[in-house]
Amino acid sequence: MLQLYGRASSSRAVGGNAPTVLRVTDLASTPAEEKGRTAFVLRNGQRAPDGFALYLIIGSADTTSLPQSAPFVVLPQQFSYLRSGDIVSIREDRGAVGVRVLYRRESSHNTFLVTERCDNYCLMCSQPPKREDDSWIIDEILQAVPLVDQTTTHLGFTGGEPTLLEERFLQVLQECKRRLPSTSIHVLSNGRSFSNRQFTKAWADIQHPALFVGIPLYSDVATLHDYIVQASGAYDQTLKGILNLKELVQKVEVRVVLHKQTYPRLPQLAEFIVRNLLFVDHVALMGLEVTGFTLANMEALWIDPIEYQRELYQAVQVLDAARVPVSIYNLPRCLLPQALWPFAARSISDWKNEYRPECQNCEEVSRCAGFFGTSKGKHSAHIRPIRSAAAHPA
């Protein structure tokens, strides 16, 4: 699993508590007008060219070649993957210097965390919410967006709940439209803010050509959905939010995390979507990431995915028959009946995507979602290599 966050082992004058957001380069020929917003990566004692805003030293911590008084941070070898076009945030906090990799140009899984605040408290939340003021993150994102490579095909925004930032988050989306007109934007939201028609209208008024919002709907039964998200009335607000968005011709994906609470009524939920939300743009049926709150709620949530394949198959058949686009995320192919393979996507973010030793001889590994590196070794007991197309019949 790639290390995206860390602390510098040593540093010099990087500039206060406010985050400094810089594009990374290893090219000494960077134009002079860009050096003021660029961090130069030094590897293995390489000599430093003049004029960059910051020097990132990876490996050997030789600072003698740096320009006089130049700010620098020394990073552990785990950050050696940094390449030109990546974006980092440097922030001093109580005498230590924190480093966060915000964007990797070569990755197709770049997602910005907008806030850790949320008005849901989901049993399986992988990013447990905090109540502290973290509005500085929006400032960081607004600095980062102009530095993102314009050929980037996809960017994600997640939380917490991004829409709690209201106008400030809408400002981020407007900046994405202006700076990255060809980049598809995917926002993960619980959907409740969209029950406010005024907010939904402001969202639609941005007129972004490729803006998607992914909204979880965990059951066709209101009380079960509200129990899972630990928020009374959330079901009604979420449904109203989806309806408001689609009335204003916005793109909506419905997301369902598969676990012990959601799988028994999965076919009924699919039928509910077909009857009442046929106009949604996509449905994602998602394997459980065993981290965050899931670890504290294992008894209520964990079920070996092999045990809910019948319900999963029935739900996919209902949605596909109604021509609702549907995908299966985060589940290894060896757990799925072969009839579901066309719906299974390689969905886990590349920085935390792993494969088990038994996957080495699997013929489907290049098409398989793999496993969450964050899941602390909790996997199905039925993982096995697939050695022929006929080895796992429907």
What would your notes on this structure say?
The protein is an alpha/beta fold. The protein has 2 domains: 5-103, Glucose Oxidase, domain 1 (3-Layer(bba) Sandwich); 111-372, Aldolase class I (TIM Barrel, Alpha-Beta Barrel), CATH 3.20.20. It is 22% helix and 21% strand. It has 9 helices and 17 strands. The strands form 3 sheets. An 8-stranded mixed beta sheet has the order 1-8-7-3-4-5-6-2. Helix 2 links the parallel strand 9 (111-113) and strand 10 (154-158). The longest helix is centred in the middle third of the chain and has 14 residues, at 234-247. The model is unreliable at 390-394 (pLDDT under 50).
List keywords for this structure.
alpha/beta; 7-stranded parallel beta sheet; single chain; Glucose Oxidase, domain 1; 394 residues; 2 domains; 9 helices; TIM Barrel; 8-stranded mixed beta sheet; 17 strands; disordered C terminus
